[in-house]
UniProtKB/TrEMBL annotation:
One Pfam assignment: ThiF
Family, as annotated: Belongs to the HesA/MoeB/ThiF family.
Gene Ontology molecular function terms on file: nucleotidyltransferase activity; sulfotransferase activity; thiosulfate-cyanide sulfurtransferase activity; ubiquitin-like modifier activating enzyme activity
Residues of the THIF-type NAD/FAD binding fold domain: 5-239
Protein name stated in the entry: Thiamine/molybdopterin biosynthesis protein
A GO CC term assigned to this protein in UniProt: cytosol
Classification via InterPro entries: ThiF/MoeB/HesA, ThiF_NAD_FAD-bd, Ubiquitin-activating_enz
Length: 329
């Protein structure tokens, strides 16, 4: 075992004590896409003890250019991302314990997940700010350090959050840029650099007991990398880290929520998975790819449903209700 990690143990500022702590620690990774899969791979190769990975999606062909742990076999079979990650990680380092949670992380389950697994750190691998605010509020409430990471096109941001300032201090309201990776694209090196900086914050925390305290931004096109101290951004009236009101944990789940451009998701009765026998293009034990009303639909066995090529929650709801009606006839 010492030979396997010899090179990082010899790295100045790390050492055997840090390696031992890494190997005995649990990390909660929320999201198994471009950031989450890359972070998972690097932590597994580094000798992390236990990875708890949450994601509810399947591997698709458009993932492969940036989510490097997946391959064509995963996308052809529409394998659950968490299952594909567990399989690949086991081949990389069979000593790493991997727990998979094939669910969306929401206000309904995040606190129970944190309480059950008691991770050393939570790592953000999500692609939306609604979930990040939930992570921010839950982690502060439970005194849990976490690492925010975001990337789009050629730009990325990383910030390790321990207490103050929290994400809501930096971004009081959810950004409404109208952009996502389906519109603006995402370069693979951007995702990998952001994930690498997130893992650097993990290693800093392991070695020193705290994060770097810097907010790091990157621009891969202009080759600009900036890191700055943001203590001054602390909001003295922050509802999360000052007033401890935790507004994100009080929100109710929306019936239909927007994902990337042209994609909406919701949850229906898991019975639909068993009763729908038409419109099927591909299926396995946990997933069905449907073509219905000239739209692609992903239906998972846990009741999660994603509708493609719709551009409002009303349009998505109409398609889903029509599908349910046809399944009942």
């Amino acid at each position: 075992m010492s030979e396997r990690f010899d090179r990082q143990i010899k790295s100045p500022g790390f050492g055997q004590a840090a390696q031992d702590k890494l190997s005995s620690s649990t990390f909660l990774i929320i999201g198994g896409g471009a950031l989450g899969s890359t972070v998972s791979e690097m932590l597994a190769r580094s000798g992390a003890g236990h990875l708890v990975i949450c994601d509810m999606d399947v591997v698709s062909l458009s993932n492969l250019h940036r989510q490097s742990l997946f391959d064509e076999a995963d996308s052809t079979a529409y394998t659950l991302k968490v299952d594909a990650l567990a399989s690949h990680i086991n081949r990389i380092n069979s000593n790493v314990k991997v727990t998979t949670i094939s669910e969306e992380v929401t206000v309904n389950n995040i606190e129970s997940i944190i309480g059950r697994y008691k991770p050393l750190l939570v790592i953000d691998g999500t692609d939306n700010f609604a979930t990040r605010y939930i992570i921010n509020d839950a982690c502060h409430k439970h005194n849990m350090p976490w690492i925010y990471g975001a990337c789009l096109n050629v730009n990325g941001t990383v910030y390790g959050i321990e207490n103050q300032p929290c994400l809501r201090c930096i971004l009081p309201n959810e950004p409404d840029t109208g952009q996502d990776c389906a519109i603006s694209g995402i370069m693979p090196q951007t995702a990998h650099l952001v994930a690498s900086i997130q893992v650097s914050e993990v290693m800093h925390y392991i070695s020193h007991g705290h994060f770097s305290g810097k907010l790091t931004t990157i621009d891969c096109e202009k080759m600009i990398f900036k890191s700055r101290n943001i203590d001054a951004i602390h909001n003295p009236a922050c509802p999360t880290c000052v007033n401890k009101d935790y507004p994100a944990l009080k929100q109710s789940l929306s019936f239909v929520t927007k994902m990337c451009r042209g994609k909406y998701q919701t949850h229906v009765s898991s019975n639909l998975f068993n009763t729908i026998n038409e419109y099927i293009i591909h299926q396995n034990e946990h997933f069905k790819l449907l073509s219905f009303r000239e739209r692609k639909i992903h239906l998972l066995s846990n009741g999660r449903i994603i509708v493609f090529d719709v551009y409002s929650s009303e349009e998505a709801t109409a398609v889903i209700e029509d599908l349910i009606k046809h399944a009942q006839t």
